[in-house]
Fold:
Amino acid sequence: MLGNKTIIALLFCAFAAGTLSARAQVVPAAYKKGLSLTAGGFGSVFQPDFTGSVVGTSSNRLYGVGAYADLKITRWVQIEAEARWLRFNQYKENGEDNYLIGPRVPFSVRHFPHVKPYGKVLVGYGSGNFLFGHANALAFGGGVDYRLNNRFSIRAFDLEYQEWHVNPTLYPYGASVGMSYKIF
Structure:
């Protein structure tokens, strides 16, 4: 015959074995999403600041097109790369091109889940016919993406203020609108 201690030990082992396969009855609080890559295009209008002053005095604005890609690694770790070619409405063949990359920080809007505001700081270089070569560039910006469905988003607006390190320093600024497609 088994003793009380043996029966208690067997019951404890049976209970412990039964709890290993038990599952909770609630939905998980969070899901981890994997990498996400979004690519898109946009149209831009920029004040070129050929005169080198903080408030651009050039009366000719530049218009152009561009492309961008956003790599979302985690909720707070995102990278944006963009290229912009401002060739329309040039003054004396003085168009501008820039190629920038850097971190992108999203913000949440509680009552508007399709609205995705963000801020960004990008580095890279800019070039133009008025330069011999290219200039190192730093850009600060932000905007709002509006998600249409799981794949398509509209870049409702994107504002950017750039600083080109040449002599004299240039401060072009402008706005862009566009559309993107989530690749994965």
